[in-house]
Design goal:
Elements (H helix, E strand, L loop, with lengths): L2 E3 L4 E3 H4 L5 E10 L9 E3 L1 E4 L11 E2 L11 E3 L13 E6 L9 E8 L2 H4 L6 E10 L5 E6 L9 E10 L2 E11 L2 H8 L5
Parallel strand pairs: 1-11
Antiparallel strand pairs: 2-13, 3-8, 3-10, 4-9, 5-6, 5-9, 7-8, 9-12, 10-11, 12-13
Length: about 190
């Protein structure tokens, strides 16, 4: 049974699904109708240590680097429009293949060319992140973002994190006006 989270809430994925080995993190959104350019939102993942610093620049997984060095994190590819129902982009995380020093996997979403197109998350609706068990396709957790991020061009939707022997998921919902580059720098990725 899926747990619906609010901002800051967390759930133990390991307790919800004993023996959990891999998850699909689905991210989705709809752009509000505007008279400007089409919206292109991009999901990414950053594998960090327990202190929140990227393990390496190659552990920043996105549409131009679709797989982490050890293959534990894989991006499904770029959806340029966000059209249609369900997940717009998916990232598969094989928990058992993550390096021992991996403490978190953070999931930012950014608006491609936001500055040029004058776009912000204030123009995005129905944004969500969900975690699905790869073994049986059961949704374990979901966070529907409701914040009006009028100036932000990137957001951290959520994160998987290690707590002892458990993997948990936290709903984050933190906006960044500095875009994806600002998020990457905050996590120690050289951009």
């Amino acid at each position: 049974m899926s747990v619906s989270l609010t901002k800051g809430g967390n759930v133990s994925l390991t307790k919800a699904a004993p023996g959990l080995a891999a998850v699909t993190v689905g991210l989705g959104w709809d752009a509000r109708t505007t008279d400007g350019s089409a919206f292109d939102l991009d999901a990414s993942a950053i594998v960090t240590d327990a202190d929140g610093k990227a393990l390496s620049d190659q552990h920043f997984v996105f549409f131009n680097n679709k797989t982490s060095p050890e293959g534990a994190v894989q991006h499904s590819g770029d959806n340029l429009t966000g059209a249609g129902e369900g997940d717009d982009e998916q990232i598969v995380v094989t928990l058992s293949s993550l390096p021992p020093n991996a403490g978190r996997v953070v999931f930012p979403v950014s608006i491609y060319d936001a500055g040029t197109n004058g776009q912000t998350f204030g123009q995005v609706r129905n944004a969500f992140i969900r975690v699905v068990n790869q073994a049986d396709s059961a949704e374990l957790a979901r966070y529907d973002l409701s914040e009006d991020a009028s100036t932000e061009t990137a957001m951290v939707f959520g994160e998987l994190y290690r707590n002892g022997d458990e993997w948990k998921f936290r709903a984050v919902g933190q906006g960044y006006s500095a875009g994806l580059a600002g998020i990457a720098r905050d996590f120690g990725v050289n951009v």
